[in-house]
Amino acid sequence: MNILYLNHYAGSPTLGMEYRPYYLAREWVRAGHRVQMIASAHSHVRARQPELPAGATGPCWQAIDGIDYGWFATPPYEGNGLGRVKNIWSFLSQVWRATDTLIAHRRPDVVIASSTYPMDIWVARRLARRTGATLVFEVHDLWPLSPIELSGMSRRHPFIQLVQKAEDDAYRDADVVISMLPKVHDYMASRGLDLKKLHIVPNGITLDEWSGEPPPLREDVAQAVATARARGATVVGYAGSMGRPNALDTLLDAARLLRDEPLAIVMVGSGHERDRLAQRITTEGLAHVQLLPPIPKAQIPSFLAAVDIAYIGWQRVPIYRFGIAPNKLMDYLMARCVVLHSVEAGNDPVAEAGCGLTVPPESPEAVAAGLRQLAALPPGTRREMGERGRAFVLARHTYPVLAQRFLDACGPAPALAAPARM
């Protein structure tokens, strides 16, 4: 099949997040399908941006591991303000105007709208209707509920009303809806989705990243871990984004409670909150906490193998009643990490796998107590828990399995319809 995958934030191992579109597309290419990955050339979640020729217009094509990436030049931005909105509309308007170019490049059998925000459904719908393709809406987060419940935006805000219109259109017009979140059925039905269209395909891992010997850790990270071990500390690791949803303030509050105990925390990553968190560490004298720049994804297995406990936390917000699907947790489990999970959600992979301890969110006392409890376990017990986590991922969350489930949900390649102008 010819698959057109529209994801504003799509990345790759060399560029950084988002990784899921790349991993799914790579499995489809390996299975003999052809994928156009349509993405913005500027994204706040990537470690670095693709290089485009000066003054580039329309899709700039780049082959990455057999996937045809079509980059669209968009204005840079920081944070979640007006700059991000301008970036979104620049991307969508350019893709809309490039409909004929994209169809001429490779006429799609399946068109996937997958940009976190739902407004890309209008562009994807145009492409699907022009080609008779199956239209797929992939849900990462529930917009507009996410900005409402996580950021406090009013339901009457014009942007929220626009997003709500896009979500409702997506549930009405998509042939297939793929959700990473497992507990969305009642909500989506309340917004008009025929649940026969709904399929759950969570996040996962790619096996080849976990085969062979991983590259060694960058020197500063290796030194931070070695220094902690030299003083007899149990090392708690965190690898990932540093934003409000990641609840890293709770981890630092817990670190303050653990100041005089043999525990050290090593955090690697970047994000909107990184500078503020670094200032907290300095101001509060948290000498047992090290905050370091992000490491290449290929080094993540080495980092996780070096720590004793991995932390992942969440805010206490109602949106998580629909479930969670964190990428970093799949890496934690694959690395045989014992996990301290601070969450209240509709699902809990750590509890399902039996590979760690779950404590209430936004409770420094609970996080501190949980870390003490895991640190006190015999090493053999922690190893057994880590093995259970890895077995859980291998059974349910490898990308060859997930990619096939995704395409099975799309059904057989449709017969091509005569072009219909919009």
TrEMBL record:
Q: What is this protein called?
A: Glycosyltransferase involved in cell wall biosynthesis
Q: Which UniProt keywords apply?
A: Transferase
* SUPFAM superfamilies, per the entry: UDP-Glycosyltransferase/glycogen phosphorylase
**Domain Glycosyltransferase subfamily 4-like N-terminal: residue ranges:** 16-204
- Species for this entry: Sphaerotilus hippei
Q: A GO molecular function for this record?
A: glycosyltransferase activity
**InterPro entries named in the record:** Glyco_trans_1 (IPR001296), Glyco_trans_4-like_N (IPR028098)
Pfam families linked: Glyco_trans_4_4, Glycos_transf_1
Q: Where do the Glycosyl transferase family domain residues begin and end?
A: 232-391
PANTHER family from the UniProt entry: GLYCOSYLTRANSFERASE, GLYCOSYLTRANSFERASE (GROUP I)
